[in-house]
Structure prediction request, 362 residues.
Amino acid sequence: MDAPKTISLEVMKQIVENLNSVIMLFDDSLHLQYINPVGEMMYGLSAPHMIGRGLSRVLPRLDLVQALGEALDSGHTFTERESEIELGPKHLVTVDLTAIPLLESNQSAALLVEMSQLDRQIRIAREENLLTLNQATRSLVRNMAHEIKNPLGGIRGTAQLLERELDSEELKEFTGIIISEADRLQKLVDRMLGPNTLPHKEMVNIHEVLERVKQVAEMDLAEGIAIRRDYDISLPDLFADKDQLIQSVLNLLRNAVQALKDGGEITLRTRAQRQYTIGHIRHRLVAAIEIIDNGPGIPESLLEKIFFPMVTGRSEGTGLGLSIAQSLINQHGGLIECNSQPGRTVFTVLLPFSHENGESNG
Prediction:
């Protein structure tokens, strides 16, 4: 009988790099020697920038540093549930943390730390809920719109027939109002239905899209509003419909501009997210496009509903721009998220670097 084949180090490395948990390895002096891609994503830093850092810089909590040091010295596993760790200003994460001492004869000790990000699981559940609600709402709106269009067409047709029978120009004015209002409602219904064409995808440079959007927005930008860029120019091209991306991001940018009534700053920011889950599909690499403004923020009562049709915080708004943008991004297997507080509102467009809508590239 042949001896069983051992798993190669390369395969083991691939397994660790594709885990959903953060994996970190510290040496006997508690300096970081390895971090997997999920860890890079959580910290927002690449491995080369983190390797060599001491434990207190990686997990900046004195009691936790002491507990992990004791675990390494004693050889006993340490576990802490729902551990809160501050990774930077306004960047607090909640994790389940396990530290396992690795003690081998004739070798230095090491400490393996595994963290499962609980707020990430909450985010994934929220995204799945958002996608489900958006699809259900779009379906409901489509059904309602079709029910409205039938009698609307009848009203318009009847008004046209009546207009032909009338001799009085004064009365024809009223039928003209009926026809024009029916046309206006028809356009509104069509907008509520959202995009009705499939994306025409090609390789697209996302920064060309953002520059085009910035150029269009700046044509009628109010005085006192500045748009600045913060691009990761190493991002690869996306397989997407360029026109639909422009429309989506332009809707978001115009929304940010309208929020800055008294002036302010908008930032267009791009970053890559590794091993990222959108809805229930995990992708090896995702583009994160952020539109950040320092306006007054979105009321909490609206925050959970802003992507629904006809929901708006402005008296002059139609409540369709964000809904349409979400639908267009959904057609690319992506999602738009929003986080808002006074002084900082962030709309994040998440788009997978995959050649097929909704297909994982991991």
